[in-house]
Amino acid sequence: MTDPPEATVALPAAVVEWYEKFSRFNSPYPAHRRGRAVDLYPGDGVGRSPVAGVVRAVRTVGCPDRPYAAAEDHLIVVDLADKWCARAGVPTGTVARILHVIPEVSPGDRVAVGDALGPTTRSGFFGQWVDDHVHLGFRPPDANPFRASGSLPVAVDAPVEPVAWDGTGAVVERGPTHVVLGAPRRGDGERSFAALASDGGVPLDGGATHYAGGGAFEIGSETPATGGSEPAALEPGDAVSLFGTPVGTATEHGSEAAVGAPRIEWDPVDVLANGERVVGLSLFAARGDRFGVKLVCPDREFSVGESVTVEVVPSDDPIRLGVG
């Protein structure tokens, strides 16, 4: 007798609209690699609740020791309201797990979508170039919500506009280990989400290619690629290219593969900025004036206003960052 299929949490568009950015695959951790977590970026330092329900537990947990990060992180466990479960297509009793927020809520508190749970925290679980965010995962009824593994698949019910880019742009923001380029240019829908498009018009997600895998966003019929061509859906086994160079292959679906939009296994390639190798591109869906391409470059300095050309080339020794 086979086990029944797992429920997939369909995160409603009305939830992600509380945030400036979101990503399913931009992390080296197994939950993200398998499409079983989503990171939601508020942009204002407030860790808003992406779910409705009652807080079951709040715990302080240890995290990797990083000089730029707090010494501890926090887990907020929420028993989801029946209406929220119905809207997301999961059984009553499903539980949410929220990380990277300093809790200002307590067990027994009732929370609604958009309620402030507390300020976000700089956690050692993510890289210095990663913006503060709310990590969200789900557990089925009767599962142990405190274990690090066992999360349900997560899909995001929000279309993302694929935006074409020629790889050139000026630096508009500089951090200790990254810069943001003020390109590509997007359409008029500043309230909708957009992401860098592959050569085939597929919006890309993840750390390209400093994490072993990335993924794609759902496109939606109302968001054609810049340039007027309708992008084809990315199917498992399809090749993906960027700036004319093959960069990966969509994986087959299955029990260990990502759900929803396919996961992409990156090819051995390097990302170059003005001809020099950098760590990679940090890709996500964003909206408004926060949209741009984040270049991860801890060993390379760029000035605000400097023009940068990004290329992708085959590599015998690609950069791959783990979780240690």
UniProtKB/TrEMBL annotation:
Domain DUF8155: 11-155, 161-312
Alphabetical list of Pfam families matching this protein: DUF8155 (PF26482), DUF8155_C (PF26483)
Name of the protein in question: Uncharacterized protein
Lineage, highest ranks first: Archaea, Methanobacteriati, Methanobacteriota, Stenosarchaea group, Halobacteria
